[in-house]
Amino acid sequence: MQCITTPLPGVLIIEPKVFDDERGFFFESFNQRVWHELTGLEHQFVQHNHSRSAQNVLRGLHYQIRQPQGKLVRVVSGEIFDVAVDIRRSSPHFGQWYGISLSAENKRQMWIPEGFAHGFCVTSNHAEVLYLASDYYAPEFERCIAWNDPAIAINWPLSGQPLLSAKDSQGCLLAEAESFD
Questions:
Q1: N or C, which end of the chain is more exposed by having fewer CB within 10 Å?
Q2: Would residue 62 show up in a list of annotated catalytic residues for this protein?
């Protein structure tokens, strides 16, 4: 595996070593020992989530204000544009975002640490997304920042209006959001 840093300190791209041949492919998508060696992080993942979404579905920008979750995200079918937004007020990168295409084809993974909001939009006909979470889902602490907040100005690669959940369509602006110190 290879670990690639991004312009947002703490947000990482993980590229697995893929073994391809005429039968197909094999790769190790997660190994605790290798994860620690590559990143220096000691996270124990406690929850494994799987979603399937249609093209132009946009999920996010989500975070938990208490019991914050770090997320290791990958795509097993289709393609998404995955985004992390720094929402730590003391960070020099507060309000900045980083996005990357994750797909079944490129097999990349993105690590979104605690203190960041997370969202993605589906750029293929559909996408299935798996992610490991470092803490349990706690709906009472879940918060949502507006996907289209002009202060963040994410350049979403959408081919029309996004399909949003009721919760995501009511996200607040970053300036009004509960954030981390």
A1: C
A2: yes
